[in-house]
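Inputs:
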Amino acid sequence: MSNHRRHLLGMHDLDSADVERILETAAGFEDVVERDVKKVPTLRGRTVLNLFYESSTRTSASFELAAKRLSADVVSVKAAGSSVDKGESLKDTVRTLNAYKPNIIVIRHPHIGAAQLTARWSDAHVVNAGDGKHQHPTQSLLDLYTIKKRLGRLQDVKVSIVGDVLHSRVARSNIEGFQMMGLDVTLVGPPALIPPGIEEATGVKVSDDPESMSEADVIYVLRMQHERMESGQNYLPSLREYARVWGVNARRVRPGQVVMHPGPMNRGVEIAPDVADSAASLVENQVEAGLVVRMAVLYDLMTRPSMGTVIDIRERAGERGAA
Amino acid sequence: MSPLQTRVLLDADQIARTLARIGSEIVERHPDLSSVHLVGIRSRGVPIAERIRDRIKETTGVEVPVGAVDISFYRDDVGLRSGADERLGDHPIVGETILDGPVEGAMVVLVDDVLYTGRTVRAAIDAIFDYGRPACIELAVLADRGHRELPFRADFVGKNLPTQLAEHVRVRLVETDGVDEVVLIGGGGETT
């Protein structure tokens, strides 16, 4: 199989033109998911395989629905209840499922690099739906889509990413994606939860002052990732203490600011219910965006299957192809 | 290989007269315009549909609705671009499908710039049906260049252009390209 097969393993697989195109395509799907017939025949006869080694509600549901809305055949495999329980290795599972010739494999896995290995071991286009604390690119795309839809722009939008950056793949993808699209990113949180050296590595600003959130257009609240914190490590004195100092509550959100959260929310820890359910919260908009953005990602991989051959189609728009 | 030859087939004046004629043919076929809905196929079908609407309004005083259909999600070549068919163009940026009023029971006139293989029309008809069940669908094109791959014909044809497969017909419009003209590019030999 060609080495040039396109994958979406991290935001580094995209440039700003790719992101713009995917966001435009997603906007085109808004109409499809609103109308009576919520399905288009685009991927009829293609197969999308969802392989989830970690719990997920919105990512797995939205990828499955996205593929179905595009008329693809969808197989969803969860590690729990599959041969993984019997000790099958990732490689054997991927090789086995590859025999069914999926066009796209969507994988979530607790270990960094699992998506990359899947790309190596299969003949499909691979979409990383989260690998450990590494990357979750479709989350970043849907966050960009949500911000653009609400604020009308991406350039120079000020975002404070607040909380557990250290354990967050969402933060890693968003730092990359937000900066690529010209947003102004500040990481806000207790120093123990901010990766050391990240300012130098990525060019973001870092603040250990909770008040600095008031400068932002968007307060992006991260989930406290208890399950990724190594036991015996004291990242925090207590969750109550964290909520008191860093929790985003109604007092902290000034008029005009919007609040985002990738979910699932720990209400009363990183985000207070009075914010989560307020008009400033874009959490439900993010979930809605997840469907159309994932449709756009599947569409983009199938319509531009290889790397390095992407021509600016606007130049050639005058020449209609075979369709 | 000789450099690509370009020949103007229709100039601005001829395009204007052709669209006026298509407008009056539509009026002739549908004396009652109340359920006629022009639907342009993106991208150049849309400005052509708008111009036909304007001509119809000039002669009858009736403004028929104009919609736009984007066929990106209905193409038959998604995922098939492994170089087998050179004519498979790049997938254009997805546009919105906007219909001005219900499709149910409407007399839809699809409008496009060039009728060629017929695959675009097939995709557009499939798209329309996902919005409702029209009373009928007709097809109006500025130019028909032949070489059909599906059994379609247009109800309203601006100009029949016999072409060779190696040639390209480009329609340029003021709205999208800054100039009104239909040109034939390439080929070199006699047209069939």
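Residues 308-323 of chain A have pLDDT under 50 and may be disordered. Flag for discussion at group meeting.
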